[in-house]
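Input sequence (303 aa), recorded before submission:
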Amino acid sequence: MAKLQQAHGDLNEADALRTRLERLERGIGGLNAGSVEAWLGDFAASRAGLLSLEADGVDVRSERARYDDLGARIIRRAGSVVGMAGGPVAYVALREKLSVQGDEPAWRLEAIDRLRRLRRRNIVISLIGALALVGFVGWLFRAQLFPKDPTRDAMNAALRALGRGSPTEALAELETGLTITPTSTTLLIWRGALLTESRPDEAAASFARAQALTGEVDFLLDRGDAFVQTGQPARALPDLNRAAALQPNSPIPPFLRANAHEALGDRAATIEDLETASTLAQKQGNDFLYAQIRVRLGYLIAP
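Predicted structure, token format:
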């Protein structure tokens, strides 16, 4: 009687194979240390039954496809399955206990896991080496790749000092920056702004030097902004009014003047300047400044 056909009685070999395959398919998703030995036992029995039927010339292509799919699934989980079995030595011992012979990949999970670990280790080593090389090259050429900016560094330090309420310390930071870049108009203007009240002659000299190094409008805008940020908004207004007169189509003078009005508590003048700056920014196509101004206006106008 054919092994695939049996009317009554005990299950034939094909029926037993299908039953095991179904049990394996149900159990593979929940494999754990407690069930892995029984699952592999069924997998070994399925392999033996499949090979026997194929040797007898029985058409078990469907069952072979199911078995191979199970094999592919545990190959993907090789490391986990070997771990559940107790490690590589325990897994090999279990395979020998189940009398599985041959080089079928699904039964050489310890070798697959070892190769994967080796590959991952090599990748990590390569990445570390590449990062180390990039870091070394970056260190060698750090001056070219990351050039120092004395003006920026001095300004950042001065702003931090002002944030701590220490204008004297801020002035010292600006002086240090000017020893490195004596022609920095930004540092000269901020130095003048901080000295205006206490040492007006030195402030005037610092402003004069800065103005000689830059254009009139830029000087007025920078000094007006510096006055606002150093807590002297009333002193900023003449500079920003003059800049607005010299550049009536620029949104920058009214935008900065709005900051001065806001610092002085003049809400109406602040809104008026921001509306003017908004219109000019839109005409110039300066979308970033336009959006920034509209957000500020939203906060000011909101009830």
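Checked by second reader. The radius of gyration is 40 Å.
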